Amino acid sequence: MTRRMSRRGRDVAVLLDDFGHRLPTVPTAPAATRERAPFTSGVPRRGPRGRGRGRAATPAPLSVWRMTSEQTPVAWPLIPTPGLPPTGAQMGIDLLSGGTFYCDPVGWVTDDDVPVTNPNVVVFGKPGRGKSATVKAFALRMLGYGYRTLVLGDTKDEYEPLCRELGVEPFAIGHGLPARINPLAFGPLGHGWDRLDAAEARRREAIIFARWLVLLRGLVGSQSVPFGPVEENAVGEALRLLTGYRSGATRLSEPTLPQLWRALDEPPDELVAGCRYADLRHFLDATRVLRDALGALVKGSLAGLFDDHTSIDVDWRAPIQSLSLSRLEPLGDQAVGIALTCLNSWGQAMREIADPGDLRIVVRDETWRQMRLGVEAMKSLDANLRLSRRDADVQILLAHKPSDMLTAGDATSQAVAIARDLLHLCDTRVLHGQDQAVGDELGSMLGLSPVAQRVVTGWAVAGKGRALWLVGDRAFKVQTVLTEPELRLTYTNEALTAGGAA
Ligand SMILES: Nc1ncnc2c1ncn2[C@@H]1O[C@H](COP(=O)(O)OP(=O)(O)OP(=O)(O)O)[C@@H](O)[C@H]1O
Ligand SMILES: [Mg+2]
């Protein structure tokens, strides 16, 4: 029916014309002239004919080598290892594969294909090579994955711009400032003590006291004073008395270092008896060196900083928290090292219990200052990592070189063994540029091959942010790429450029 109507009826153009409209007409394209093919004649398979011309299929001379797969890496070193999964922070370019390098320490632990068993990272490199910048970029880029950052001791206040950018005011610690940190704080383990059953209270007590002993061993050891069973017994007993644990109190009172020193210096009778000394004189004689070392610390390096109950209220839900220590710089490496030892212990306490999903990056920058305090301080750092109950925390240590602690005047085999132990606790090692002399040291302490050593002492020295990343036993040659805002936030050369401008 419609077809018939349309056949007989007027078409749209005529209809519109009646109302004064014109349908546009399709312009007719001019006929295209055919282009000539660029190649008029084909070339024969064996090339153009003629004298001295043409092609012959002659294979290139090959040299044949036979070797075992163990020897292959010598001839073809640093052949890209199997890549890492593209999860976590995008750090920069993996120059061996040409792809993007991603860093995801916790993800690596849970992935059976990646040979790491802990999420801890140690970063080595000579000054100014971009260690801190790499860590700051990592912290920033992991924010999107729910990670928060805790900087345990910012000795140069260089994390402050990053904190402020994220809307957080860092805490400044120094003489004359109000902030106090109590390294003997209970942390979340002390909460609700009166409601704990006996077994749980004993479990928590063991954890808290173990941490305190590690701290005191490090502090007393930094004064070159031995901390043996006698000292350990006296300190342990004094702490149990001070907290009220010995008397079975339902609410424990938090001790401070000056209180501990006073308890040892003017011991109550229970302490003397609890340590099984015949009389007061016997106790005082046996603990003289310990009391003097603690007294020197309480009146010296710890005074006004770590000698009272914690006075700062840390917001653990903020994206970053940092404790600035630059005001201690004029007091020397030892004072800074002692402050770092206290902060490490406090930080560990704060992380003892955390909600599920509370992922954190704990940064310990300038760790070498603590390492230099001696073997005991080194052991305390090692124990802090070992005792850390929270496997989901990414602990990052930054130091110049592995042998830093050996310069404490105690290059004993024990010190070397501890350094090795500490390295074993960090399955991911980031090696920024180093001088030639340190290359050999890396070889012996990290088992780095000569080729990998050359990457660290050659290629990595030639640019900031260049580093050999060892993820388990896999090596990656990575250039960290910083964006413009990150470059601004990580800039640490103010002093140099200000000097140049003057
Ligand atoms: N990947 C990078 N690209 C460009 N610039 C970088 C890169 N990494 C670091 N820098 C710049 O190099 C300077 C020094 O970096 P950084 O402070 O991180 O060094 P460092 O190794 O931590 O030194 P130190 O041992 O003295 O603490 C900074 O100004 C930083 O912005
Ligand atoms: Mg730095």
Description:
This is ATP-binding protein. It is a single chain. With 502 residues, the chain is an alpha/beta fold. The chain has helices spanning 2-8, 12-18, 72-75, 105-110, 131-142, 160-165, 198-221, 229-243, 257-265, 269-274, 280-286, 288-299, 333-350, 367-371, 375-387, 413-424, 436-446, 450-459, 484-489, 494-501, and strands spanning 89-94, 99-103, 121-124, 147-154, 171-172, 320-324, 359-364, 394-399, 428-432, 466-471, 474-480. Among the domains are: 81-160 and 324-335 and 358-492, 3-Layer(aba) Sandwich (Rossmann fold), CATH 3.40.50.300; 193-285, no CATH class. Helix 15 runs parallel beside helix 16 and helix 17 (436-446) runs antiparallel to helix 18. Adenosine-5'-triphosphate (ATP) binds next to helix 5. Residues 125, 127-133, 464-465, 480, 482, 487, 490-493 line the site of adenosine-5'-triphosphate.
Characteristics:
502 residues; alpha/beta; Rossmann fold; eleven-stranded mixed sheet; 39% helix; elongated; disordered N terminus; P-loop_NTPase; ATP-binding protein
Beta-strand content bin:
5-15%
- Spatial gap, N to C terminus: 95 Å
Supply the helix-strand structural class.
alpha/beta
Question: CATH top level of the domain at 81-160 and 324-335 and 358-492?
Answer: Alpha Beta
Organism: Geodermatophilus pulveris
Protein name: ATP-binding protein
